[in-house]
Amino acid sequence: MSLHQLTAHALLDLLKSRQTSAREAYDDVLARIKAVDPKVKAYVRMAYTPPDFVGEIPVPIAIKDNLCTKHEEITCASRILKGFRSPYDAGVIERIKKSGGTILGIVNMDEFAFGSSCETSCYGPTFNPWDLQCVPGGSSGGSAASVAADEAMWALGSDTGGSIRQPASFCGIVGLKPTYGRVSRYGLIAFASSLDQIGPLTKDVRDCALLMNIISGYDERDSTSVNEPVPDYTKALVNDVRGLKIGIPKEAFVDGLDPEVRRSVEDALNLLKKLGAVIKEVSLPHTPYAVATYYIVATAEASSNLARFDGVRFGLRAQPKNVRKNALVDMYEETRSLGFGDEAKRRIMLGTYALSSGYYDAYYLRGQKVRTLIKNDLDEVFKDCDVIMTPTSPTVAFKVGEKVSDPLSMYLSDIYTIPANLAGIPAISVPCGFSKSGLPIGMQLMGKAFDEEMLLRVSYTYEQNTEWHLKKPKLN
Amino acid sequence: MSITREDVKYIAALARIDVPEDKLDAMTKSLGGIVQYVEQLQSLDVSNVKPTSHAVPVGNVLRPDVVKPSLTNQEAFSFAVEAKDGSFKVPLVIE
User: Fold this and answer.
1) Which of A37, A106, A138, A427 has the lowest CB atom count within 10 Å?
2) What tens digit of pLDDT does each residue of B27-69 get?
């Protein structure tokens, strides 16, 4: 096995026994990127600053293009931020560097994380390593594709409505959205501040626990960071689910769910039952409203967060030729019109509408109230369940171009992942099978706030008893 | 409720986005479709429900008002589109 194919924990074992060096591993992954990235197109640019190979956990890592990394160009895959070199490190990047993490480069995403396919990027799409005709999912599509293609040992992404879990599912890897407040958002370019959370995309569950150990913890520079003790997540890797209660929401297994996805998730459920878990049918009656709620709350927050991109301080500035309103307003409007892609404009405008005078009560306020109902549903189920299990996405990866002209059908691919963001709870996607066409299928486990350990324990047990996570795409 | 062409022009002005005439119909159609989809929320009774703005209860977070090291002026302007005398330069606003 080549070094680039290793999990991070396998690499760390080799380093410990001095069978390889951090530099050797880094160079091997770089060579892999050179070999396969022309096909996958996961990276938008390689790091300008080379690593110093000092530190305990020198694992080659890919960084999503919305995490500020000092001296690197960080653009949210948008023309409006082209040329922006971050003057500082995000909280998670500081932690990665402190641990010795060796940053390979910056990976692709949907523009400002607005999308589920990586196709709205100003750099063009990333392709799914399992089938280059298909999307890798999104918005952290570059993160997921880089890990699946062995172009990074692990990666960081961000998840506002499923942006870590859905691409992890499409690419056959593990992706975790932590509890809101568990990981500092300082230096994450905001999409929807009440929903965004940074998290790991990894080759297996042990790596997920290891990367959580590095990035979790309180940060006073993020006022929503929660000051709770951080456990050693690797201690949660216990191969035992006996007596644990798994809730299965009946609303999840309805029309629109691909029969192959349904079968794989049901098989996984039966396996966990065989291993001693207790399966319980539950109801989350308001989750069918989650997508509608999300597209009000998230776009409203986005329209406000993206107001800062106006050509004044950083990124693109248009030079209008004719005066229409006045020189400053013309500059704002032309900069934003040139700088943002169609989906970004659509979401900013939708959010502006939901917040505008006369519509605020009917849309934004009502959306926030339905958010309460969805959260209450989950709270109620967690009184008697340890985890809730659903598919991660209703389908396997779709073809590039298939959904770009129909935003609503794209939005519906997040139907299972959105509730965890609205409720602020942690959720993980774990590989649980393949379609006949050879595309990965993922299952989602949601847990109680700050109970990532339970998710890791159930995922680990499942992984120890299956081999899906060991399969690799054939790219050569 | 449906969205009209005039609504889109109005929202575009609020959002400081210029939607050219030839793209107005397409934007009206796609925004209209989404607004129609979110209409489903109107069927729920939320009269006694409190809104959730954050899933985890958060209040004001205060810190001591102490000067700490931060970006230098030079670093902060390293990415400026146009800067002059330690300030961001913008087009003339008042004649």
Assistant:
1) A37
2) 999 999 999 999 999 999 999 999 999 888 778 888 899 999 9
Instruction: Tell whether B56 is within 8 A of chain A (Cβ).
Output: yes
- Ordered by start, the domain boundaries in chain A are 3-244+397-470
| Residue A202 in this model has a pLDDT that exceeds 90 | yes
Domains of chain B: 5-43 (1.10.20)
Whether A163 is catalytic = yes
* Residues A6-57 pLDDT 10s: 999 999 999 999 999 999 999 999 999 999 999 999 999 999 999 999 999 9
Whether B27 sits inside 8 A of A83 (CB atoms) is no
Q: Does B61 touch chain A (CB under 8 A)?
A: yes
**Considering A139, A225, A393, A459, which one is annotated as catalytic?**
A139
Q: What is the CATH number of domain A3-244+397-470?
A: 3.90.1300.10
Interface probe for A, chosen from B36, B38, B48, B49 (most Cβ of A below 10 Å), is B38
B11:A345 CB<8 A: no
Q: What are the b/e assignments for A190-212, b being 16+ CB within 10 Å?
A: bbbbbbbbbbbbbbbbbbbbbbb
Residue A105 CB partners (closer than 8 Å, separation 6+): A33, A43, A44, A45, A46, A47, A62, A63
